[in-house]
Specification:
By secondary structure, the chain is α/β, with parallel strands linked by helices. Helix content is 28%, strand content 14%. It has helices at residues 52-56, 65-76, 119-147, 188-196, 217-222, 243-257; strands spanning 19-22, 30-34, 80-83, 105-106, 109-110, 154-161, 177-180, 204-206, 230-236.
Length: 272
């Protein structure tokens, strides 16, 4: 079993940072975030005891979400913050301490490096990856708001989902895109309406395949609590599993988002 020394630093000096800020000069009043953009695992964790094949599966990251986020960032002229490490190391869309924050299994696969992990071992993952990522999100939003105080920034949380879960009896998921939201309709509802009006017969999920009322840590922490407009965007992974396919969906999303970005009815503080 992979073990982790409680006293060790998680990342070596030559390993990538816990986050990437992409297109930092983007001037649009919307920030894109990708909590599960990478399947990278710190060297000291020995791949968490997983095979190379398992490290490439959806359990380790949101396949295609990084390419989608970066393409949409450029099309909207908006900055983006992408997490640099796997959701299996620590899930940046869960509250630390939640059992799903550092899962011991995912879609039927046991994660050996997470089994029996001490509290100190869990805390260092929070300190070295979770906290820097969320601080980068907070700092980028603060910079955007200071730059243009009259236009509160919006937050789009970018994700992808597997076409079918393997560990439970579950039918294939028909939605190409799902919009996740709770009380704030300012972005999610017009996005759904716009995508459904594209005329290409897309199946667009309203809080499908997940509910934004249940899984929304990042948007709740950085946007909903402050009254900022926000939405979660989930794209099915077989729709964006190459850069070219991800760019096609980024263009579709940008076409619908363009009229909303900067609109005064959207960019205002409102607590629902």
């Amino acid at each position: 079993m992979v073990t982790f020394l409680d006293t060790a630093s998680l990342l070596d000096a030559d390993e990538p940072a816990p986050f990437e800020i992409f297109n930092p000069g983007g001037q649009a009043p919307v920030l894109l975030v990708a909590d599960h953009a990478s399947n990278r695992i710190p060297r000291c964790l020995g791949g968490l005891g997983l095979s190379t094949a398992d490290q490439q599966r959806h359990i380790a990251w949101d396949i295609g979400s990084a390419d989608l986020t970066m393409s949409l960032s450029l099309l909207l002229h908006a900055p983006a913050v992408l997490c640099g490490y796997s959701r299996l190391v620590i899930d940046c869309n869960r509250l630390p301490g939640d059992p799903d924050s550092i899962p011991v299994s995912s879609d039927g696969t046991v994660i050996p490096g997470n089994c029996g992990l001490s509290e100190a071992g869990q805390e260092v993952r929070t300190t070295d990856i979770f906290n820097p990522y969320h601080q980068a999100v907070a700092d980028t939003l603060a910079h955007m708001w200071r730059r243009c105080p009259t236009v509160p920034p919006a937050l789009l949380s970018m994700h992808s989902f597997t076409p079918q879960l393997l560990s439970i009896e579950h039918p294939p998921r028909p939605w190409q895109v799902g919009l996740l939201w709770n009380r704030d309709p300012r972005l999610a509802v017009p996005l759904m309406e716009g995508l459904r009006a594209c005329g290409d017969g897309f199946c667009i999920g309203d809080n499908q395949p997940y509910s934004g009322r249940d899984i929304a840590f990042t948007v709740d922490r950085h946007a909903a609590s402050a009254g900022l407009p926000h939405a979660g965007i989930e794209v099915r992974q077989d729709e964006i599993d190459t850069k070219d396919k991800a760019h096609v969906w980024a263009c579709r999303l940008a076409e619908v988002l363009d009229p909303l970005v900067g609109h005064p009815d959207v960019h205002r503080i409102y607590h629902y």
